[in-house]
Amino acid sequence: MAENTTATSPTNSFSQTDTAILDALYVILLATFGASFQYLIWYAKDIVERYFMSTAEIRFDDETFNYFMYWMSRQPNMSKTNRFVAGVKTSGYWSDDCSDDEDDEKGIELDEPGCGENEPSFEEYWAKLTGRDKYRTLRYTPSEGRHFFWYRGKPLMLERQQQQQSPLWVMNNETLYVSCIGRNPAIIKDLLNEAQQTYVERDGNRTVIYRGQRLYTGQQFGWYRCMARCPRPLSTVVLDQAQKDEFISDIKEYLHPRTRRWYSNRGIPYRRGYLLHGPPGTGKTSLCFAAAGLLSLKLYLLNLDSKALDEDNLASLFHDLPRRCIVLLEDVDTAGVTHTRGKTTDSSKDKDKPTDSTDHTEAEELEGKDKDKDKKEDKSPGITLSALLNVIDGVAASEGRILVMTTNHPEKLDAALLRPGRVDLSIAFGRTTQADIEELFTSIYTTMEGDLPRAAASRRLPNGAAKHLTNGSANHNHENGKVEYAEKRKQEENDKEQKRRLHDLRVRISKLATDFSAIMPNGEFTAAEIQGYLLNHKDSPEAAIGGADAWVQGLREKKSAQDSILA
Question: Would the keyword Transmembrane turn up in this protein's UniProt record (predicted)?
Answer without folding.
Answer: yes
